[in-house]
Design brief:
Number of helices of chain A: 10
Oligomer: heterodimer
Helix content of chain A: 55-70%
Shape of chain B: globular
Radius of gyration of chain B: 22 Å
Distance between the termini of chain A: 35 Å
Largest sheet of chain B: 5 strands, antiparallel
Chain lengths: ~210, ~190
Amino acid sequence: MNLRRIAYTRPWRTFIAGFFKENAVTYQLLGLCSTLAVSNKLENAIAMGLGVVFVVTISSLLIALLRRLIPPQYRMITYMIVTSTFVIIVDQFLKANYPLISSQLGPYVGLIITNCIVMGRQEAFAIKNGAWLSFLDGLGSSSSYLYTLVILGVIREILGFGTLLNFRVIPPSFPPWVVITMAQGAWFLLAIYYWVFRRVAKLKPAEQE
Amino acid sequence: MNLKRKLLDVLFIVVLGVVSVALLLAAQSYSAPAVKRFRETRLKTNILTAAGIPWSQADFSEVFEQRVREETGGDVAWFVADSLVIYEFKGRGLWGMIEGIATFDSALTRIVSIRVLSQEETPGLGDRIKEPDYLATYKGRTAAEPLELALRHQASLPNEVDAISGATLSSQALVTIVSDAARQLRAAKGGAR
């Protein structure tokens, strides 16, 4: 099968829809709270983004595998149990291996449980589709969150701290933009990012439901 | 049939819960030793910094052994380094536990420094209690009597500490915790003599 054909297959379309056009942060406007809070430094953004990718992908896969067993009226409870289990595992992993990042992320790792991307993908997709497609859907949506955080993290760390991954990239004579390290500054940046992203993705107002 | 369906539903949730608990216990036992090691490192390096003793990532353990000694009185333990008394405190904040170390002069009359090592206060408001700029307001305050939060005015008396706007409860929690730490330490040291 040549590459051009792959672009028209259902798995690829499922993945790329979440990854690009239906970007979790810019199109679905989900997970904004943690986006503003933890994208102040690149390492925080990467750690948080990978945590969300792990949780969303694995829990979507598991929900899809269990979808015929899950009692319909208890499906929300099931989502919560599955999600919180994986979130706590991510939290423990960070605490054990990256304690400094873990303390900088503070409560936000635990709050992945309430990140709407997780339950959004489970309820909107995984409960109705097969394991492979749900896995790709979760991976696509959560990766869009990851790269959005990384883009914001790069800009905010360079402008706000003058560093990138804690290495100085801008001479100390450049005054750091303190406001951009705070959530308020992130709003401005996020608005600009929306504008650019929606231009690139050619989203028309009519498509914004 | 309906009853059977319901029982199966309950069974599903129970099985899911058991599997989840098993996974969490496994994660806990995996991370516990590393977390303990990190907490020890954090405590030692912060005590050294609080006492003004230079250390590096490679030698802090030996430096700690040489320069810091632990003393106990009753069931209270504290550290002594270069005539400073350092106490590891822990107490209830607004949302979760606030942990840190308090440094006093040898006679326990005034506070030399306060360092907050972990806290779960509101991000952006209460979590400012961990910032060195705020904690500097404790410097030189009395340790001989309970501290009070200066509300609606700048702290000026030796037993007053500034409050953080929008985070009165977190500020108050830290003031109470530090006051309690000083009181416990005074009682324990008095008993040790």
